[in-house]
């Protein structure tokens, strides 16, 4: 899944002298307080860490509150989704107006009706709603489905995602995994069809251009006069 990154960071954690007897636990407590929050310095939401304490910086006395710094190098797992990235979330609520999901167990995500492609139709069966593809009956999105979607935006303060299912490489993750070759073939066919339509349009425009040169399309004298006047005004 996109949006996840692993990196090394050089950090300094400041501790009260009373924590000097158990520095490792104190460092872990400080780092744990940063979990599942967006941190501008780290440029992402901290999901996991693996610290390696390098040593103390010595005692520092800022005013009347003493503390000492601990240098450490840590491997970090960060989450920072950007627009157009592909993410996966588990559906926790579904209605005709929106699909609500949980991503990585902590971040909420929503896809509103206008961001769900027309291929999917909302249906209710036995009191339960689901989105079913009109062209692929087995491609369904319902409660508990893992959905692959494109990121539209990410609210860093409340860790809320807005997503989209407009692209053909989005939908039920299990269905996409099983039918990835078919999806690629469909995309290829769609691209080829668009190219053919483009060539047809060019030919049609060429024919129209020849026709317009041979026979004027506008034979209304008033219209011609107004066009001439407009040209003189300019």
TrEMBL record:
**Mitochondrion recorded as keyword:** no
Annotated region Disordered: the residues are 177-234
Composition bias, Basic residues: 224-234
Q: Where is the protein situated, by its record's location annotation?
A: Nucleus
Stretches of Polar residues bias are at 177-188
Which biological process annotations from GO are given for this protein? DNA-templated transcription initiation; transcription elongation by RNA polymerase I
| Cellular compartments per GO CC | RNA polymerase I complex
InterPro entries xref list: RNA_pol_Rpb7-like_N_sf, Rpb7-like
Q: Name the principal localization, coarsely classed.
A: nucleus
**Key words, A-Z:** DNA-directed RNA polymerase, Nucleus, Transcription
Per UniProt, the ranges with Basic and acidic residues bias are: 193-211
Has the keyword Isomerase been applied to this entry? no
Name the job this protein performs.
DNA-dependent RNA polymerase which catalyzes the transcription of DNA into RNA using the four ribonucleoside triphosphates as substrates.
UniProt-recorded name of the protein = DNA-directed RNA polymerase subunit
